[in-house]
């Protein structure tokens, strides 16, 4: 198992590789080429440059989070052919650079959605929060205004003001794309890329939708145990796998995380784990908490135990952390709380392993 941290690259991250290197037990990072527009093929030299930068600090580039999927692939437009070809080139170049795990998501238009990027908690720390009551009646255009007013100076990924026109156009294009159609388009994509993944041993790890239900009337398909079973069966290759994100899947309290991890149809395909805890006020209203079991609704011991029980040997990272100790960083991705998360998760792992009979 590789304990990692997500790193956005020296240009985009307030956290440095030297800092990450000093967190006990962290051997590498997952990162991405954030300046390459979605849909373009990744060049071998660019990947090598990122890899060298990471390795020069004494860490490993253990995987990519993420190689994003162009909307035309998700919508199923004829133009997807070119974008799939480009994706295959990116995978081939990653394989040649000896990078073998790629996280991606298949959410229409938006990545993870939150209604507050800096909710103040009782101890003065701030955290990302979500309130379904705000989202459920809101139109996307109103959401833009809200984001500009209430994001505390931060811009939620995907909600950059300059995307407003593009996004309204995308909503048009998604008309008629049902959940079934989206699932078919995922299969089409997986069937096309799996031969490249097999050749270069690249484990694809689809990230669950966050939150794990439809928002703004757009379909979402990576939301439940049943959905993960279906996706596993879309293409039988072991390289068609999952990112087990406790916070995303766990946003729906009906999802039993340890049970999902132990599901034999899913467990062997878990290549990447994102571990975080969340505190729920009610169904659909939650904020992200510290990683500690007692601070949220998830039993982190049971989640780690389930991963240990299935002999999970993939990549793991603490997920979003709170902002503590006055840190200024990308929402969810400060150094301090994620480092505390690593220390706690490592403690759980050590105890569970030593107690194994
Ligand atoms: Mn995640």
From TrEMBL:
Sorted alphabetically, the keyword list is:
Iron, Lyase, Manganese
By what name is this protein known?
Answer: Mannonate dehydratase
Question: Which cofactor does the UniProt annotation name?
Answer: Fe(2+); Mn(2+)
Upper classification of the source organism reads: Bacteria, Bacillati, Bacillota, Clostridia, Lachnospirales
Q: Which Pfam families match?
A: UxuA
EC identifiers of the protein: 4.2.1.8
Q: What does this protein do?
A: Catalyzes the dehydration of D-mannonate.
Similarity comment: Belongs to the mannonate dehydratase family.
Question: By its UniProt entry, which InterPro entries does this protein fall under?
Answer: Man_deHydtase, Xyl_isomerase-like_sf
Q: What is the primary gene name for this protein?
A: uxuA
Reactions it catalyzes: D-mannonate = 2-dehydro-3-deoxy-D-gluconate + H2O
| Pathway the protein contributes to | Carbohydrate metabolism; pentose and glucuronate interconversion
């Amino acid at each position: 198992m590789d304990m990692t941290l997500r790193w956005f690259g020296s240009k985009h991250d307030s956290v440095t590789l030297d800092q990450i290197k000093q967190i006990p037990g962290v051997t590498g990072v997952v990162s991405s080429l954030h300046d390459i527009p979605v849909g373009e093929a990744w060049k071998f030299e660019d990947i090598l440059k990122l890899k060298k930068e990471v390795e020069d600090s004494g860490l490993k580039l253990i995987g990519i989070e993420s190689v994003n999927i162009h909307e035309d692939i998700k919508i199923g437009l004829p133009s997807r052919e070119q974008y799939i070809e480009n994706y295959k080139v990116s995978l081939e170049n990653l394989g040649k650079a000896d990078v073998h795990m790629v996280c991606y998501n298949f959410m229409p238009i938006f990545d993870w959605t939150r209604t507050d990027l800096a909710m103040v908690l009782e101890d003065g720390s701030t955290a990302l929060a979500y309130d379904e009551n705000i989202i459920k009646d809101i139109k996307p255009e109103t959401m833009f205004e809200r984001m500009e007013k209430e994001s505390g100076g931060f811009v939620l990924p995907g909600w950059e003001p300059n995307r407003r026109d593009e996004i309204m156009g995308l909503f048009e294009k998604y008309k008629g794309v049902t959940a079934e159609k989206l699932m078919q388009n995922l299969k089409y994509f997986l069937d096309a890329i799996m031969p490249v993944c097999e050749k270069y041993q690249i484990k694809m790890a689809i990230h669950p939708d966050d939150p794990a239900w439809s928002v703004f009337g757009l379909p979402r398909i990576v939301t439940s145990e049943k959905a993960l079973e279906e996706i596993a069966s879309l293409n039988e290759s072991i390289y068609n796998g999952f990112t087990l994100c406790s916070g995303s899947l766990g946003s729906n309290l009906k999802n039993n995380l340890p049970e999902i991890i132990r599901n034999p149809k899913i467990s062997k395909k878990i290549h990447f784990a994102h571990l975080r805890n969340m505190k729920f006020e009610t169904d659909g209203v939650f904020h992200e908490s510290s990683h500690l079991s007692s601070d949220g609704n998830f039993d982190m011991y049971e989640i780690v135990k389930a991963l240990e029980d299935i002999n999970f040997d993939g990549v793991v990272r603490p997920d979003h952390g709170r902002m503590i100790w006055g840190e200024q960083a990308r929402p969810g991705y400060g150094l301090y709380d994620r480092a505390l998360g690593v220390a706690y998760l490592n403690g759980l792992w050590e105890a569970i392993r030593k107690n194994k009979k």
